[in-house]
Amino acid sequence: MNSLNQQWQYHYKNILSPMILARSGGDTGTFGLVNSMLGAGGIAGGIAVAAGKRTKNPRKMIYISAGISFLLGDLLMGAGRNVFAWSAAGIFASFPIPFVMAGQSILLYRIVPENIQGRIFAIRNGIQNSTIPIGLLLGGYLADSVFEPFMVSHHAAAVFLQSIVGRGPGSGMAVMFLCTGMLGALSSMLGYRNRSVRNLTGPA
Q1: Any transmembrane segments, and where (predicted)?
Q2: How far is it, in rounded angstroms, from Cα 79 to Cα 178?
Q3: Which domain, by its residues, includes 143?
Q4: Who has the most CB within 10 Å: 4, 16, 30, 108?
Q5: CATH of the domain at 109
Q6: What is the tens place of the pLDDT at every residue in 25-60?
């Protein structure tokens, strides 16, 4: 559960910080407010999970919540051009995360035999944590060497994307958020409909 939260935090901090600062002209107040909204959304989501009824089907909790986070969070974060849009995106992105984490925990504790839970969770956490450095390095490389240069080109696709995210410093990283939003929502939908996952969680 902690490693999932860490991965989400690193995903945002790796690209979000330079994107907000670049697109706001280095306004640390704007970045601080957006960061605060990310934290507030996560806290509110945690309270909602704790206060709600226990779900009978964690598949909905995991994949629908993740899809909402990607669609409303990442897409709005990329398309937004001011502190209000970015703050709303921060709330939309972080509020569903506790639901994802809770659903994952429910599913794992339900299907993993008690006598091997420690080993299984240790292996899972090790695998998840091992991907963090790769994501950090890859995200930085893609931002500096691929997306940012592409968005200052005159390519037809770049011109089209500029109509969505704008142009100038940070626009390439904004497109990266659009990509994670669309791909994340698609993977969440496919995961929700996956037969193997459905067999683990039972009917919707």
Answers
A1: 29-49, 61-79, 85-109, 130-152, 172-192
A2: 7
A3: 2-201
A4: 16
A5: 1.20.1250
A6: 999 999 999 999 999 999 999 999 999 877 778 888
